[in-house]
């Protein structure tokens, strides 16, 4: 299924001065000096296309620094006048949108804590009506693809066609090395449903610590994401917010130099030919896999009927356990990750259970 949004290509509204597209700037604008000094150094790298700064900050607990507020718009405009960099801010309500538009902000983004709430997104969308400003929508904090798509649809329906998504990772109970779980599958699903939608990655919020950022950023580029939003601060050690995940402009520059840029496709005829041959092999193997899955399910159905006629339960834990043990061991010999093998088997098993349940239920109904 493909969704239908009216979106302009990124290249028609974003002047990418260096590949990959990098949007950078401090997590929060703190002082005029901090913002201007950071902006100057970012500009000097020659590798940053847009300056970002948070001026209204949604914080988990009250009493923390909640952003410098509207004065930050003036500082951003000073930075823009000096560096020539277009400016981007986060907006979380109609007032923010109004002020940002009045100040001539070039790009607005909607944060994860706003995307999660359709009322907030609709309020922002209504405030955007009639304005031709680029808007970027971060994923919601919870891994709900529909909410993310819904927010993009609301903004698009307000007439915003310069639209992009930002993948910043998802909250989870699970404690891992990441501040927010990347859950790449969701970004891949969004790209599959909306191939024309530019998706940027925000490795700063996924990682939560600067050391991890280059790895996540490279992975995002390898997944064909169209740019990166990376937080940078003149001196991260004294940052008022998110100190651990900000990098200096110099570190950012070095990081960008280390990226390997891979293209979405190659026109080299030799490459195209070899790829076609390998894909033909994959097609044949996929045919076989599905043929075999079909055959397996037929036997599962026969077993279901046999169990039904002999009043035996559908779920057979010891048999299921035996399959799990045997196949994961075999899978590891075949160099398949245990986690992958288990996921495949679990999918197959739950489909078996579903099929056999249908057989049992049909009979119960017939027996009436
Ligand atoms: C097919 C059966 O029913 C269920 C499905 C299984 C499977 O798909 O392999 C295994 C055990 C049962 O939970 C069976 O009992 O063998």
TrEMBL record:
Enzyme Commission designation: 5.4.99.5
Biological processes per GO annotation: chorismate metabolic process
Keywords annotated in UniProt: Transferase
Keyword Transferase: yes
Protein origin, superkingdom: Bacteria
Record carries keyword Ubl conjugation: no
GO molecular function ontology, one term from the record: chorismate mutase activity
Pfam families: CM_2, DAHP_synth_1
Stretches assigned to the Chorismate mutase domain: 269-360
Signal peptide range in chain numbering: none
Name under which the protein is recorded: chorismate mutase
Species, as recorded: Pedobacter psychrophilus
